[in-house]
Amino acid sequence: MTSRVRPHLSYNEPLLFERSSPGKVAYQLPELDVPPVDPKEALGPSNVREAIDDFPEVSEVEVIRHYTRLSAWNYAIDFGMYPLGSCTMKYNPRVNELVARLEGLAWAHPYQPESLAQGAMEVMARLEAALAEITGMDAVTLQPAAGAQGELTALLMMRALLERRGNPRKKILIPDSAHGTNPASAATAGYAVENIKSNEAGMLDVAALEQHVNEDVAALMLTNPNTLGIFEEQIERVAEILHAKGALLYMDGANMNALMGIARPGDFGVDALHLNLHKTFSTPHGGGGPGAGPVAVKRELEPFLPVPRLKRTGKKWAYDYRRKDSIGRVRAFYGNFGVLVRALAYILAHGGPGLRNVTLDAVLNANYIRRKLEPHFDLPYPSPAMHEVVFSDARQAVHDVHTGEIAKRLIDYGFHPYTVSFPLIVRGAMMIEPTETETKHELDRFIQAMIDIAGEAEQDSEIVRNAPHATRTSRVDEVAAARKPVLRWKPA
Amino acid sequence: MRYLPKSDSDRREMLDAIGADSLEALFAHLPASVRLNRPLDLPSGISEYEIVRYFRERAAQNADDYSCFLGAGVYRHFRPVLVDTVVSRGEFLTSYTPYQAEISQGTLTTIFEFQTMICQLTGMEVANASMYDGSTAMAEAAMMAVRITRKNRVLVARSVHPEYREVLRTYAKNQEMPVEEFGYAAEMGTLDLAELERQLSGPPTAAVIVQSPNFFGIVEPVQQAAELAHRAGALLVAVFTEAVSLGILHPPEDVDIVAGELQSFALTPSYGGPYAGIIATKERFVRQMPGRLVGETIDADGNRAFCLTLATREQHIRREKATSNICTNQALLALMASVFMAVYGKQGLRELALQNLAKAHYLAGRLQPRFCGKFFNEFTVRMEGKSPDAVNRALLRQRIIGGLPLGRFYPELADSLLLCATEMSRREEMDQLAEAIQ
């Protein structure tokens, strides 16, 4: 038996608005050193608002207590392991937070003269070069704000290239194991989506692909390793099939943590891919963002990259806005610079050999979990695992215990649930990605927790079905939330 | 390596358990032809001390200790200390998207409060949990209007941030969504209502997009634009880039969708990002709204609880039929903005806005604004007999970063600078700037 979590003080805390009372403040502005202005005169009487109704009025200490108490209701990597498959929840080095807040970087205005932004531009240029080397691609844009926007950016570039060749084509092929953003991004880029089945090995069915690829297909969007944690061993053949018909190969780089220093997408036929800096490159998830989704491309796609592009003129960095084939901008300014700083700090800390060690340990951890849990859980695809492993709840389902319930029970053991019900091709999927930053001790605790829960599923299934039990909030009624949405607080 | 928490003997034990000889053996199934047979061409890892030194050197290459009068969508406002105190907590910083509601009530509660405060500020009925930034929020708002109206043409004012309009064009291009622009009045610097009206008499229009205060800092006649739009069966999308203005400016009524940028609320300029955008709208449009939403519900014991909701709009459920491909939001930045709103509160946000108004009007009083429209904390000035670039170069010698030369985005304003003053602009700095320009 592994030790479960024990309760600790958990404070009740009302909403800010319920804490609020008239006349309280948490701010003090400097005395105005210029004459005050009558807003009605300056802005026109009809443009001036009265007080903002019900806006918070709290004191400084209440602000701290409010957010500190709320923070204690969260799980976080700093507490323990997040075995969330596909999400690569690894430790977030704190030096990255410090350097992103250095005044010369954090307070740099995007329109300050290039001569006074050389440090920021150098950071971006260095990161572009490092990502190009890691992926084996020719050029990188750092502009996309997150992975999904990276997908869209790459698809727009591919479309532009195909248009240049005479036909933008109509369809994007997507394996049935893909992330949901892939089809959504394809639709935003103006493409129809066609799904392709996986084979019994959990890999893309190459024969099916051959049948699907024709003059209407613009590209295949493939995740590699795929969402089963399996390397697509036929990847070079896949690229060949597509290229022979004038189609392109897009790779979702969400799982790059499995490949650094081992294999490079650029070397196995990929034409474009995005990276999630908030996964592989350790920038914090922050409860759901910010991320960054740079896109790396082969030379042929380079003319279509978003503007502006960094270029070296003499000893200085400059921006090149005059690129007639560019797809344009995908967001204002240059990208999520603060996230880019953190990612570069991570790359510098590990260095080339170190990034390879990251991948080695990530794959070691996943395979260790797989070997230890295989006797207890159903493994639908026996192909070798890379950085993550997908089990199914088939052996627990006979006791009417399902993946979502097992996941919730993990919380009582002090772990965040694994990824539930994804990929869609595995019924009752349990998708586990430990990342490289877990100790053997923590992995052993997790493994034991899973084994204990498998035992509970047989002997005491109610305790699993009603989990979690140790949280301050018991099972949340998500159905009620959707049926009658309450999306904001209102005064009683 | 300090981020890898295993000893070699741990690895040996684990490999033995797996039945593998070496770490390399774990990759034996990869085809030899895909393997990288050389080390990555990147330098070896460096220590924490060296990392800090490297970035300090880069920071020193950037502007350091200059007065700055740039705005144009990114504003220098003081950040209350509590903001970083709160967001540096690992419980917020290192947590995942709050899909698992039982262990994410902290983040979920803060987002619910955020949605509420955005509604209070914008006068809208619902707001989402945030978008990437203002520019993409505007593009998403346009696509949302297209879904609601089932028309596809979009009219956008030229007085909207030029880079936002560029992003809109990129998104619109492959969605059969023609984007057309309408101009601004040369004297006032406000959108040209007559031209808007003329364009609305053309093909059916899904949305009219205006920004207030606009790119020139001027308060737009949003209400009149909304009336024209509605008369033509189009929705009115109102954009803001300077959130502090909402402390004093009346949120326009009759707007259908608000798309905005919260950078002003405690997000450092950070050379262009990360920021946080928002979309707020009427309740009846909520199912066409992109992005995450948090809703109130109860737990199994009947206690108040929050969770992500209406996910059937989103890509992980609806895939190619989703309202948007967006997956992440900007939760940590939305939290920064929330703490900022909590610290300033009802009185403070108003006082902050009034200080911005007073500072900008003081500076404008010493210079001659080009447009006569009412402005908040930014305004445009024509340079007499000198080029804006030459003026800026001279200012740099006095350690002042001047305004944004407008010629890059508006050829007809090539003789003008866009200047911004905030509560952080001191009177001496403004006097120095004004003397240097004149």
Q: Per the principal axes of the C-alpha atoms, what is the gross shape of chain B?
A: globular
Distance between the termini of chain A: 48 Å
Main sheet characteristics of chain A: 7 strands, mixed
Residues in β-strands, percent of chain A: 5-15%
* Mean of all residue-level pLDDT scores of chain B: 96
- In the CATH hierarchy, the third-tier topology of the largest domain in chain B is known as Aspartate Aminotransferase, domain 2
Largest interface: A-B, 197 and 198 residues
What is the helix tally of chain B? 13
**Low-pLDDT segments, ≥5 res of chain B:** none
- Taking strands numbered 1, 2, ... along the chain, how are they ordered across the largest sheet of chain B? 2-8-7-6-5-3-4
What is the CA-atom radius of gyration of chain B, in angstroms? 25 Å
Percentage of helical residues of chain B?
25-40%
Q: Note the beta-strand portion of chain B.
A: 5-15%
Q: Report low-confidence residues of chain A grouped into runs of 5 or more.
A: none
- The N- and C-terminal alpha carbons of chain B lie at a distance of 58 Å
User: If classified by CATH, what would the architecture of the largest domain in chain A be?
Assistant: 3-Layer(aba) Sandwich
Number of domains of chain B: 2
Main sheet attributes: strand count, strand direction, barrel closure of chain B: 7 strands, mixed
- Rg of chain A is 25 Å
State the strand order across the main sheet of chain A: 1-7-6-5-4-2-3
- Structural domain count of chain A: 3
